[in-house]
Amino acid sequence: MKTTKDTTTAAAHGGDVRLSGISKTYGSFTAVHPLDLTVPEGSFFALLGASGCGKTTTLRMIAGLEEPSAGTVHLGDQDVTALPPYKRPVNTVFQSYALFPHLDIFENVAFGLRRRGIKSVKKQVDEMLDLVQLGEQARKKPHQLSGGQQQRVAVARALINHPKVLLLDEPLGALDLKLRRQMQLELKRIQTEVGITFVHVTHDQEEAMTMADQVAVMNAGRVEQLGSPADLYENPRTTFVANFLGSSNFIEAEIDSRGGDGLVLKAGGGKLVLPEARNSASTTTGGKVLVGVRPEKISVTHADEAGEIPEGRNRITGRIADSSFIGVSTQYVVDSPVCPEFEVYAQNIARDPRLVPGAEVVLHWNPAHTFGLDATQDIDAGTEEEAAV
Ligand SMILES: Nc1ncnc2c1ncn2[C@@H]1O[C@H](COP(=O)(O)OP(=O)(O)O)[C@@H](O)[C@H]1O
Ligand SMILES: [Mg+2]
What is the pLDDT of residue 249? Predict the structure, then answer.
């Protein structure tokens, strides 16, 4: 008796996804390089990356729709690598909702239950429709609903069979921006309510950051970095991640010495301080480091007031090349001897009217907001400029 119960309990869990050395090649082309990834049970996990980086292929290998060239897929303790899709406790929601146009919403959601020969479906379907807040629309046909509502039907239809893992492949890609924002919150609420593992594929960094507990940033068939949104944003380990999530400024600098507050770096004629814990480059003296800092961490002071900048801040000089007022903030582009086109986002609190193009300025920031990256990388990796090439 006890054994049976334990088995049931084990089966009720098993919502973590473990990929071990999984890869996919098409002929001589490698779409996914050997990949190790664990998605914790009950988490909202995002696979984020530009088009073509291998997100869908990875998702399809979890679903069983694509056979891996090597490696294994575990759901909980179960090795599902050899199981066909319908035997895996997984369901997928695609960008195209693929609802049955001739069936009403209720019957679309009931479909999975009826196919399994379940007769009394009303209670479960009603619960699912309530979950996605479409109880009132049960008797409408898909074409009578908005895109966002149709996508919620698709989610309800996928959840009704109680999968342990829900896979979502760019499910909001067809929606306009405003609806997409609403649906992001809605999907997050649904995931919190049902508590199962969601693996969400998107190329939209803001979407991944808003929704996910953990984000795996993919680049050319590899996971470049994995972490919480805040961790990826504050501690990017590659220029690709630093540029793909938000924007970053980079200064090429040389290691001068080790000081009490961190590494002391030479850039142009000046010195910058980088906390050692935030540096992922080699620390050989004389070695090169890319010093990164996010645009919103930087303050702009007119050169005439430079004496008022507190001690201990990293500072560089420059001239304002461009300024755009966008309401909550002003975005400056500053040409500096150590970095062309330094980006600065200044909150509009008290605007100095002298900060206009042509003005000589000092840019300064808390050294703790500086991160250091290996200088052999392409500074533009992951930027839109790079994507356009
Ligand atoms: N069946 C296939 N045959 C050959 N190449 C494929 C096939 N499926 C995907 N690819 C290639 O693998 C790469 C990754 O594709 P995909 O996983 O769909 O990327 P993403 O979802 O991140 O946009 C792309 O370069 C794509 O062209
Ligand atoms: Mg895709």
Answer: 96
CATH of the domain at 283: 2.40.50.100
Distance from the first to the final alpha carbon of the chain: 64
Q: Looking at the structure, tell me whether residues 278 and 358 fall in a common domain.
A: yes
Structure tokens at 232: 């990826």
Q: List, for residues 116-175, the tens digit of each pLDDT value.
A: 899 899 999 999 999 999 999 999 999 999 988 999 999 999 999 899 999 999 999 888
Q: Average pLDDT for residues 251-262, to the nearest whole number?
A: 91
Q: What's the pLDDT at 12? A: 47
**pLDDT tens track for 175-232:** 888 889 999 999 999 999 999 999 999 999 999 999 999 999 999 999 999 999 999 9
Residues 351 and 260 in one domain: yes
Exposure letters 82-102 (e unless 16+ CB within 10 A, then b): eeeeeebbbbbbbbebebeee
Residues with CB under 6 A from ligand 1: 26, 29, 31, 49, 51-57
Please give the model's pTM, rounded to 2 decimal places.
0.89
Q: Tell me which of 24, 25, 53 to substitute to probe ligand 1's pocket, judged by most ligand atoms within 8 Å of the beta carbon.
A: 53
pLDDT attached to residue 228? 98
Same domain, 281 and 144: no
**Of the residues 239, 269, 287, the one at which a domain ends:** 239
d(CA 54, ligand 2 centre) in Å? 7
Q: Do residue 110 and residue 233 come from a single domain?
A: yes
Closest ligand (CA of 65): 1
Say which residues have a Cβ less than 8 Å from residue 53's Cβ, sequence separation at least 6: 218, 219, 220, 221
212 and 326 assigned to the same domain: no
The residue range of the domain holding 61 is 5-239
Count of domains observed in the chain: 2
- What is the whole-number distance in angstroms between the Cα of residue 23 and the centre of ligand 2? 16
Rounded-to-integer distance, Cα 320 and Cα 335, Å: 6
pLDDT tens column, 338-379? 988 999 999 988 888 999 999 999 999 999 999 999 999 999
Concatenating the DSSP letter of every residue in 44-65 gives EEEEE--TTSSHHHHHHHHHTS
Q: What is the CATH number of the domain that holds 196?
A: 3.40.50.300
Are residues 230 and 253 both part of a single domain? no
